[in-house]
Amino acid sequence: MDAEKIKVRVTETGQMMDVVVYDKRASGIQIVLGEGVHNVKCELTPTRTGQAYVGSVMGRELVYERTRDQVQADIDRLNPNLREFKR
Predict the structure, then answer these.
(1) How far is Cα 35 from Cα 68, in angstroms, rounded to an integer?
(2) Structural domain containing residue 55
(3) Which among 7, 26, 58, 73 has the fewest CB atoms less than 10 Å away?
């Protein structure tokens, strides 16, 4: 299975960076920067307005410019069985 990758923006430089998604929920996204023993995990949380996800790693601020609704739609599209929870 291929790992899902997203593009985040580093606010200091404006540079776009590809990162691997470790866990994706509408309430937060965990990402992994780097590979092997030099990787670093980061938690992206939604802003108060819900227009983007932000997080900080090693003093750098990262921004994922998608809304909560767009992220939830991505989750539903990738795994439609997740919404059909039955007791």
Answers:
(1) 27
(2) 5-79
(3) 58
